[in-house]
Amino acid sequence: MSAAIIDGKAFAATIRARVADHVARLRDEQGTAPGLAVVLVGEDPASQVYVRSKGKMTKECGMQSFEHRLPADTTQVDLMALIARLNADAQVHGILVQLPLPAHLDSDLVINAIDPAKDVDGFHVSNVGLLGTGQKAMVPCTPLGCLMMLRDHHGSLSGMDAVVLGRSNIVGKPMAQLLLGDSCTVTIAHSRTRDLAEVTRRADILVAAVGRPEMVTGDYVKPGATVIDVGINRVERDGASRLVGDCDFASCAEVAGAITPVPGGVGPMTIACLLANTVTAFCRAHDLKEPDGLTA
Ligand SMILES: Nc1nc(=O)c2c([nH]1)NC[C@@H]1CN(c3ccc(C(=O)N[C@@H](CCC(=O)O)C(=O)O)cc3)C=[N+]21
User: Which GO terms describe its biological process (predicted)?
Assistant: First the structure.
């Protein structure tokens, strides 16, 4: 193995410490702290674990955490009514609706009902449009976390060849916008891309977000490239359940110059950026200076 390991877990801890610092100052100066509402519909065990950990870290940073757990058979009307209440609640500065929603619910309708100023996931069409036009937006947490790690590792990204593998609205597309904003030459590749490994081997920065366990092997990677592994896949291995990324870590690490591990890479950064976005939303709502280094 030759690649440097980009320690997302440690970096995320420093971001959370900065968030906590800023929150403490806001409490002093404003007499109130940012609040984050998380909405979970249904009983998916992975989602429950994840929502619990978000709530815990929200409180550890000194912010208010509001958890709304709704039954799997919640109606669209009831969910929309909850969103309307959270939009109107002055204690709530950020709203996150855990995705995916059960199939009978229309997630586009739900997300676009969130006040864009409280849309800490950055999924509302207004925020997507603001990001795409280079205006001040709420930026999706996972791509923001990846960008922070890349800037931290490289300093400037200007002129670098970046390939984003995956075209989802929550990772691939916003990741491409952020890399473009930092003056990378950006290619979005996906399952129908011809000669995929040939395309990804041109990348100085390769972001893998396809949701297919260990699909990206060393032969997809240009020697010395930086590999950001967004995948979080639970697989059975030797009778045990474990997490693997979209990259085959061993073979990629032999070729790459730097790589993020799974777990301990992008995942913890996603949660740290959610907390950072909540502080940003609070500051914008109160017309205060935004925290340095916690936004795109
Ligand atoms: N509206 C919405 N926004 C999201 O941001 C969102 C979502 N829905 N739905 C589910 C996915 C998944 N997601 C993760 C974030 C962090 C870890 C994380 O911290 N993972 C740890 C490992 C945790 C473990 O050991 O299970 C790690 O990678 O080191 C995992 C998964 C955010 N999501």
Answer: L-histidine biosynthetic process; methionine biosynthetic process; purine nucleotide biosynthetic process; tetrahydrofolate interconversion
